[in-house]
Write a structure and sequence with these properties.
This protein is 40% helix and 17% strand. By secondary structure, the protein is of the alpha/beta class. It has a single domain, classed as Metal-dependent hydrolases (TIM Barrel). It binds zinc ion (2 copies).
Length: 258
């Protein structure tokens, strides 16, 4: 299956998992497989710097700047200023990924909330969208998002259809689906995808992680997104190319790509 016009709305090509073949993938394999745009989501300050370097080198790559909830400990005192500086780059189109992740470090809840809300405030001040990472923290996250009403995307959405209905009341919030939706036990994201309006959905790999079936235990790259598109197409009863076209339009709109 060959699809065109793919926007992988969440990838990590600065990750060391791509050290062996990064250039080959970005130079050749991705463009040859229909990847037209990709957003490199930032995790730490060094990772954001490296993602920016890649966006400078490859026209179809964009980047974001933010501190991921798993990396909130031992931040430098000027971390927020560093994020602000990173957003001055022309192809930096979002603050992210930011959010709450209680799976690994439930003891850091307070610190995570503080780093998250500071970055939501920065996004509002700079009028940038946010890339949201929420894991095992949906209750707290919904409360914070309802308060801030950010423009942005819930990356790798794994909440229920009920929660999605609640979050749809935030006018410019999108929901992105990853390879997780191809897994047998992916009941919740499947139910959520069924009820979302077409103009609020996106697609992503989160590569090198979250590899879709049938490659689940291999490293993921953006070319594998076609399996996620295929599964989303089945769930919504449209073609995989239609999934790709709709999600590309939505991502371009959110990240202000003309
Ligand atoms: Zn994430
Ligand atoms: Zn990610």
């Amino acid at each position: 299956m060959v699809l065109q016009n793919i926007f992988d709305s969440h990838a990590h090509y600065a990750d060391s998992g791509f050290d062996a073949d990064r250039e080959e993938l970005l130079e050749k394999i991705l463009p040859e497989n229909g990847i037209k745009y990709s957003m490199l989501a930032g995790i730490t300050i060094p990772d954001c710097v490296e993602s920016q370097r890649l966006a400078e080198k490859y026209e179809y790559l964009y980047c974001s700047a933010g501190i991921h909830p798993e990396h909130v400990k031992d931040l430098p005192a000027d971390w927020l200023d560093r994020i602000r500086e990173l957003t001055e780059y022309e192809k930096c189109r979002a603050i992210g990924e930011i959010g709450l992740d209680y799976y690994w470090h439930p003891e850091e809840k307070m610190l995570q909330k503080k780093v998250f809300t500071r970055q939501l405030e920065l996004a509002r001040e700079l009028d940038l969208p946010v890339i949201l990472h929420i894991r095992d923290a949906m209750g707290d996250a919904v409360e914070i998002l309802q308060y801030y009403q950010p423009r942005g995307v819930m990356h790798c959405y794994n909440g229920s259809a009920e929660t999605a209905k609640e979050l749809l009341k935030i006018p410019d919030l999108y929901f992105s689906f990853s390879g997780v939706i191809t897994y047998k036990n992916a009941r919740k994201p499947v139910e959520a995808l069924k009820i979302l309006p077409p103009d609020r959905i996106m697609i992503e790999t989160d590569c090198p992680w979250l590899t879709p079936e049938p490659f689940r235990h291999k490293r993921c790259d953006s070319t594998m997104i076609i399996h996620t598109a295929q599964r989303m197409a089945e769930i919504r009863n449209i073609s995989a190319q239609e999934v790709i076209d709709i999600t590309c339009e939505n991502a371009k709109k959110l990240f202000h790509i003309l």
